[in-house]
Amino acid sequence: MAEDKRSIVIELRTTGSAGEPEGVSGEENVSDNDELAKKEKNAWLILTASGATAALSVIKKEVVYEVNRNLALTEDYKNQVLLNNAQIAVNKAVSFGAAIAAGAIAGAKTGSPIGVAAGIIIGAGSWVGNEATNIYQRFDQAGIGLTQSNLQAVYGMGRLGLIDGGRGTLN
Length: 171
Description:
About 5% of the residues are buried. By secondary structure, this protein is mainly α. It is about 75% helix and about 0% strand. Among the domains are: about 45 residues; about 60 residues.
């Protein structure tokens, strides 16, 4: 009996290798290395900036703590209030500047000066809206605190017989 020597050959043809777009060969490009080097450099800069920001934050907190501690121990409350007010003003100025810068950066992505101007206006407007909301909430909380205090005082006076002609205590 003669042996049957048939074989089946399957040939797969693709353009590019897995994960690559069509027409891209598996060979390494020099531009890919340059791009990778740029990404690594950017990552290093981001990490360095983050570390420096964290270090400055710790130093700032420690300096403010020591100054406040010294003012509290010497009972210099007037200067403590002035220092706190100055810190609030500086923090608000920095946050306003950051909001404007973020708006300008977002607007610059449009590629036009009108986009930058619109971004600055939107950044400033959102900061003002946020501050207005914070002020409203602080006043509202102060009002709630006063109402609670008044209700507690009225209840206590009623229990002591100091209001309503002494009819608050029916023992």
